[in-house]
Amino acid sequence: MHNFIKKISLVFAGVIAGIMVSLNFSAIADKEIKEELQTLPIEELRTFSQVFGRIKSDYVEPVEDKKLITEAINGMLVGLDPHSAFLDSEEYKELQIGTQGEFGGLGIQVTMEDGLVKVISPIEDTPAFRAGVKTGDLIIKIDDTAVKGMTLNDAIKRMRGKPDTPITLTVIREGEAEPLTFTLVRAIIKIDSVKSKLIEPGYAYVRITQFQERTGENLAEAITKLYSGSKVPMKGLILDLRNDPGGLLNSAVAVSAAFLPSNALVVYTEGRTNDAKMQLRANPEYYLRGSGRDFLANLPQSIKTIPMVTLVNGGSASASEIVAGALQDHKRSIVMGSQTFGKGSVQTILPLSNNTAIKLTTARYFTPNGQSIQAKGITPDILDEETDNDSRLLREADLNRHLSNGQEEKTDKAAASDKKGAQSSKRSKNKADKKQKKHEPMEFGSSDDLLLAKAVNHLKSMAQKSKHKTAKSTQS
């Protein structure tokens, strides 16, 4: 047995070294990091090989080497933060399909919390959204199988399936005495990334549900259509990013560039490698993939100056926070709503062999003014949580093993404590309303959308003030 373990130790040391060589670590320029990688943790690798050997020899049933290695890789990544993960060939393929706007499933963004699947955000116009699944719901059972003990990937695989097949989710929701049961039908999720309409003459509404490959192009088309369809000059625009879970970084830059001056800083990132240190600007080289035409080039000139309100809530995460932060820092738009999710970390997809990949957190996002989004989010200029009937209680800072903010840690903790108290008060106040509306998600942009109505009134107020100021200046 001792010789077997010794051989396994040597094999694993060789495997780890081989992986390091094959990856080349071309992105790692820092001398300190290179030196760390050149020294293999021999004692830890010996322990790893001993555990591997014991499982192979003593486990109640035979276990394939591939399964043990895959689970070990999964454990390495899952133990880092909620967003790093190993993607097998099927998951890697589905990730690539998902960014193109069509994929199979229920339409929910999830993470793992205390051994249960926690809903980050339901995606609009999907089976989960229509059924009434909400942010913060804890999924405890998928059909008749308890979630406790599953990995996140296992749970996601169970929720996926052929379109038109039923699935039952049992969830625990804060404020509800008994678990809630939702019976959904799986579907091919087709997401319209950009929705738009004229609310009334001169006032436009644009909603972005997710940042996909063609979001920038779709936004440009929507703006052009709104301007051509308006019979009066455009007076104001509302950009709705509520419940937008994020998506592709270059699409977030494109959306920001549509409204910001040319070459304005949109976001910058800080990480350990040179590749993780970027400054992304409102310039085609940062949002176009390949040598395609600049779809923002022919937008109406006034789109850079028209009064704007950007709507956000606790379901606004990642790319949507980048856009809101950029528009806010450049004083291009008033941000209205509730505190955003706080997902301010960069995940890089690193392809491996056999069509697999790892999704690895490599940097933090910072707004143009240098504020870290991570575990903090964007604070609206006009804080209005009363109209947020979905009561977004879950934030990045609530997730286990979340990456720290990297700045102002003490201030963040105090703010989180104050926010938790405020949320507790709000829950008590809205408890009866939530019970009545738990299966009736409010449609953003509808006549029942109170925050949208407030945004329109704010734009009209701005127009009146501007008109009054112009008249006063003319008289003098």
UniProtKB/TrEMBL annotation:
SMART domains per UniProt: PDZ, TSPc
GO MF, one annotated term: endopeptidase activity
CDD domains the UniProt entry points to: cpPDZ_CPP-like (cd06782), Peptidase_S41_CPP (cd07560)
Keyword line: Hydrolase, Protease, Serine protease
Region (Disordered) residue spans: 399-476
Enzyme class: hydrolase
Entry GO CC: outer membrane-bounded periplasmic space
PANTHER family, per the entry: CARBOXY-TERMINAL PROCESSING PROTEASE CTPA, TAIL-SPECIFIC PROTEASE
Database matches in InterPro entries: ClpP/crotonase-like_dom_sf, CtpA/B_N, PDZ, PDZ_sf, Peptidase_S41A, Tail-specific_protease
GO BP terms, alphabetized: proteolysis; signal transduction
Biased composition range(s): Basic residues: 426-438, 465-476
Protein's name according to its UniProt entry: Carboxy-terminal processing protease
Record flagged with keyword Protease: yes
